[in-house]
Amino acid sequence: MKMLIIADGIFGEVLSTLLSQVAKIEIKIIQSSHEDALETFLFEDPDYVLICECWDKDKTGKITELSKISLEDISNSAGEDVLIKTSGFDKENNLIFPIEIKDILASFNIQGG
Amino acid sequence: MSKIILVVEDKKEEQLIAKKAVLDGGNKIIIADTLNKAEDFIEKFSEKLSGIITDIHFPIDSAQENFGGANGISVVITSLKHSIPCAVCTDDIAHGASYIPLILKRLEMLIKREIPISGTKDWSDALQQLTELLEDQS
Asked: Could B30 and A39 be called an inter-chain contact, meaning their C-beta atoms sit closer than 8 Å?
């Protein structure tokens, strides 16, 4: 099984390491920035995709929810066999998805230990 | 290796029909719903795209949701600039926009390259025509 984590910078690296260590099944974790999300998705063919929230400036300098763009692009390209989940906070800083590693894995029906 | 096909279409229901046709054919798909997004994708994936299928009338950007200029012509021209084979999938011709095939025919004459058209908005037909074009070129 292959999981693509879309999260920029050190957060993505730490999350990827933790997920691969906690998952009870053998799972290959790949990490990508939001900028390269669609390209990585197309060439890696993951079974699972976790898109972490990211707000940043787009190429026009406007603050944009980059994770929303990643979600739309990947959902458009993904077949029905790919499970896509999002993780992050809303604009009022409410947690909209549990960030616990075990809970993230559980959302993909993967057991963590 | 799977082909990567860019589909340019703004209507969600048409995107789903196109997606099914492209994925069922064993290809990979990228979808753009505006001209700006299509041009961004062509720029970014120019080396990796096998072909493009484009609608004709759709907005330039997401702020122009209700404006559907004949922006597919721009997609065709951009695809030619990058030497990416392109097919057109539209029902505009059936709705009286007879100038569309005339423009495309003129373009074909200028560039001496075929631009297939499915004039009945049939994504499977457009994909078939694009696939034949790709096979002819290889």
From this structure: no
User: Contact A76/B28, CB-based, under 8 Å?
Assistant: no
B134: left (phi over 0), alpha (psi -120 to 50) or beta: alpha
Per-residue tens of pLDDT for chain A, all 113 residues: 899 999 887 888 888 888 888 888 888 999 999 999 999 999 999 999 999 888 888 777 888 888 889 999 999 999 999 999 888 765 565 656 656 777 788 888 888 76
Decide: helix, strand or coil at residue A84.
strand
Compute the nearest-CA separation of B106 from chain A (Å).
33
Phi then psi for residue B118, to 5 deg, are -105, 105
Domain around B100 = 4-137
What CA–CA distances, in Å, run from B65 to A7, B31, B35, B61? Answer: 30, 16, 12, 7
Complex ipTM, two decimals? 0.86
Select the residue from A76, A80, A81 to test the B interface by mutation, using most B Cβ atoms within 10 A. A76
**Whether CATH 3.40.50 fits A2-107:** yes
Per-domain residue ranges of chain A = 2-107
